[in-house]
Design a protein that fits this description.
It is a single chain. The protein is of the alpha+beta class and 141 residues long. The chain has one domain: 2-Layer Sandwich (HIT family, subunit A). Helices cover 29% and strands 18% of the residues. Strands 1-2-3-5-4 form a five-stranded antiparallel β-sheet. Helix 2 crosses helix 3. It is globular, with a radius of gyration of 14 Å. The structure holds guanosine-5'-monophosphate and zinc ion (ZN).
Length: 141
């Protein structure tokens, strides 16, 4: 039984507010209040961290991140954008399935983007944000 939450999301077995999907990569909204507004981009196959990422998955994940970044720009024109990957517990990684965080930023924001309505978005709000971003993706995936 595979317990990796991101593998379960990639297989459609766990709920997620999906932003984009291809055979090799997937993007969805982070559910955690502390990371409200982040979009997570993962390889669909289980890869623990950056050291194990194949060139093909690296390309697919980065291409999806760039496309989502453009869609975020088109939808919300954030003042800035961070692209982050933590690798290893000491670096702050807490789900050991490789992922990028795409973080829209607004002026005065400390470490995270405070997405329009609240610091504690509920599922409906994340679904709505995911829908809005999806509507601006150049290539629906
Ligand atoms: P890390 O801290 O490893 O860089 O990032 C892991 C991220 O995955 C955290 O921001 C956490 O909120 C997010 N996360 C963990 N479990 C789930 C989940 O079940 N669904 C979603 N959408 N995000 C999750
Ligand atoms: Zn996994």
């Amino acid at each position: 039984m595979d317990e990796c939450i991101f593998c379960r999301i990639a297989r459609g077995e766990a709920r997620a507010s999906v932003v984009a999907r291809s055979s090799r990569a997937m993007a969805f909204m982070d559910i955690a209040p502390v990371a409200a507004g982040h979009v997570l981009i993962i390889p669909t196959a289980h890869v623990a961290d950056i050291y194990e990422l194949s060139d093909e998955d690296a390309a697919a994940v980065m291409q999806m991140a760039v496309r989502v970044a453009r869609a975020l720009w088109a939808a919300f024109a954030p003042a800035g954008l961070n692209l982050i990957s933590s690798n290893g517990r000491a670096a702050g990684q807490d789900v050991f399935h490789f992922h990028l965080h795409l973080v829209p930023r607004v002026p005065g924001d400390g470490i995270r983007f405070r997405w329009p309505h609240s610091d504690r978005p509920d599922r409906d709000e994340l679904d709505a944000l995911a829908r809005e971003i999806r509507s601006h993706l150049e290539i629906a995936s």
